[in-house]
Design brief:
Rossmann fold, 2 domains, alpha/beta, binds adenosine-5'-triphosphate, about 325 residues, binds magnesium ion
């Protein structure tokens, strides 16, 4: 088995807000344990609001109020034999690993480039402080060479964000996140706002860069077709929990959790004659999630036990691990 680079164990976290005299706790991440390996693309899929971005924030060590961790840990194995607990690390320790070891392409990041700074200035603002004692001229040369790998000419460096297309801006943010060759790149919906042709090109470039530089990508998107093309392994999230995880092949060929089975069955195929089925109900309100398995109110095969007890992930015959009493 390839070496582990990041591990979360029993992670539970909530947004705790006090508004108009009312306390509200949104239980967004519930008992999430993941093991992410070196040099893999690890995909996280799940519907809107299921907690994907929140999980990424925790994994990246960005836990700020109102988000609060109740239990569990996140460990980064950057230095072999000396794991760093990202939830307990000091700001200094986190600064030391950001950009150089773990970088983060945030959701909607193509719109977060400073509109009044030329692109090169954004590289100076974000990446240059993390490049050690590199002379600025050498830095500019390395940014130019790096952007060339992302098919962006050097004139882009002197442009303002509004002068670039959405696809170009997204490639700039990918360039920003990869320029320091970090061990892990966390990418939250990096291509969702792009049309399918540009999306395909951008994902192809990300994958090529990943092979060349040999880093790990943690990729979040609700788009299973993107995962099918990019990910080595996938975790399927439902309402803050991991419903199933496994290799991309096993998830697509032998899904064991009823939720994953539904997602895979609902993918369109050329020549489909049958109407696609739908799941009754809606995802639960995370401020008041159902007891037991969070999927049970919508599950077509739920039994009484599902309403009382939350299942943990167990190995299934198809090769995946599913959080379901009845999987298999
Ligand atoms: N700052 C916040 N304060 C309170 N609740 C929040 C906050 N941010 C997110 N939430 C809630 O946490 C839940 C999960 O949000 P999150 O952004 O992690 O979902 P997501 O899976 O990334 O969704 P999407 O696919 O739409 O990006 C949602 O119910 C959301 O309303
Ligand atoms: Mg999100």
């Amino acid at each position: 088995m390839t070496e582990e680079i990041l591990r979360s164990t029993g992670l539970r976290a909530s947004y705790i807000t006090h508004l108009f005299g009312m306390n509200r706790e949104v239980k967004v991440v519930d008992d999430v344990s993941l093991s992410i390996r070196k040099n893999e693309v690890f995909g996280i899929a799940g519907e809107s609001g299921c907690g994907k971005t929140t999980l990424l924030k925790l994994i990246a060590g960005f836990c700020r109020p109102p988000l609060k961790v109740q239990s569990g840990s996140v460990e980064f194995m950057g230095d072999p034999g000396k794991p760093l607990s990202l939830l307990e690390a000091t700001d200094e320790e986190l600064y030391g690993i950001r950009w150089r070891q773990i970088s983060y392409i945030m959701q909607g990041s193509m719109n977060v480039l400073n509109p009044v700074r030329r692109i090169y200035k954004s590289f100076i603002d974000f990446a240059y402080p993390h490049m050690g004692r590199m002379a600025e001229k050498d830095f500019r040369d390395s940014v130019t060479a790096h952007l060339d790998k992302l098919r962006l000419g050097k004139e882009v460096l002197d442009s303002y964000p509004h002068e670039l297309s959405g696809g170009m801006r997204q490639r700039v943010t990918i360039g920003l996140a990869t320029i320091c060759s970090p061990s892990i790149i966390i990418a939250d919906e990096p291509t969702t706002a792009l049309d399918v042709v540009v999306q395909r090109e951008t994902l192809g470039l990300m994958k090529r860069l990943q092979r060349e530089l040999g880093h790990t990508i943690i990729l979040v998107t609700h788009d299973l077709a993107v995962h099918a093309n990019m990910a080595d392994r996938i975790a399927i999230m439902y309402a803050g929990t991991i419903a199933e995880e496994g290799s991309t092949k096993d998830i697509f060929e032998a899904p064991a959790h009823p939720y994953t089975q539904h997602l895979i069955r609902s993918l369109p195929h050329i020549g489909d004659k049958e109407r696609k089925g739908y799941l009754k109900g809606a995802p639960p309100n995370l401020a008041d999630p159902p007891a037991g398995c969070r999927f049970h109110p919508r599950c077509p095969i739920a039994i009484a036990r599902c309403a009382q007890e939350a299942p943990s992930l167990k190995a299934c015959s198809g090769g995946t691990r599913a959080a379901c009493f009845l999987a298999d």
